[in-house]
Design goal:
By secondary structure, the protein is of the alpha+beta class. It has a single domain, classed as Electron Transport, Fmn-binding Protein, Chain A (Pnp Oxidase, Chain A). Helices cover about 20% and strands about 30% of the residues. Strands 1, 2, 3, 4, 5, 6, 7 and 8 form an eight-stranded antiparallel beta sheet that branches. A hairpin with an 8-residue loop joins strand 2 and strand 3. The longest helix has 11 residues. About 30% of the residues are buried. It comes from Catenulispora pinistramenti. Pfam families: PNPOx_N. This is Pyridoxamine 5'-phosphate oxidase family protein.
Length: about 190
């Protein structure tokens, strides 16, 4: 049933690349709320090496993952992929993550792994994978992908710099548990070089 995997080999890379969505889980150190975020857009996730992955963090409705990763002594994160096809399988990547701001040289070095044409890029989340487990996924339903949902990109395209600045200083300033989210000087999406 469940097994440990030493690293992200070619077989596992192929499995990850075939999944149209993934889930990101994080939590504060003490108490608070556990957060699980579904992520779409297949071109937003990249395997960097056998023990490092990253994903484009797009502006959404909250800032939970970033706040948890920024919490002193925390950085715990899990990414889960599950197959909805005839081949049942679940893979979890356990590790520690960090946010890479768009105004850093590291962001410039990493952005080639993604489709940075997405509007509303908030950061890149880099995860050092410490443990990999797979399991059967026998209870996961069969589903057929119709298409990627374009709503997030379309909605982001309608926002101007004033609206983005408001999201940074208000909706993305703190998590639901009051942990710091984005700093007030976080770059606006219009400043992200595509």
């Amino acid at each position: 049933m469940a097994s440990e995997i030493d690293g992200i080999d070619d077989r596992l890379r192929t499995f990850i690349a075939a999944q149209p969505m993934y889930f990101v889980a994080s939590a504060p150190l003490d108490g608070g709320h556990v957060n699980v975020s579904p992520k779409g857009y297949a071109d937003t996730f990249a395997v960097l090496d056998d023990h490092t992955v990253a994903y484009l963090d797009l502006f959404g409705s909250g800032i939970e993952t970033v706040a948890h990763l920024r919490q002193e002594g925390n950085r715990r994160i899990t990414v889960m992929f599950c197959s909805f096809t005839r081949n049942s399988k679940i893979v979890r990547l356990f590790g520690t993550g960090r946010m890479v701001r768009p105004d850093t040289p590291e962001f410039e070095a990493l952005k080639g792994h993604f489709n940075t044409a997405h509007i509303g890029i908030r950061a890149i989340i880099v995860i050092d994978v410490e443990r990999i487990r797979d399991s059967c996924g026998y209870a996961v339903p069969y589903m057929t992908l119709v298409d990627e949902r374009p709503v997030l990109d379309k909605r982001a395209a309608r926002r101007d710099d004033e609206e983005w600045a408001d999201r940074i200083t208000n909706a993305n300033a703190a998590s639901i548990d009051g942990l710091p989210g984005l700093d007030a000087d976080h770059p606006l999406p219009s400043a992200v070089v595509r």
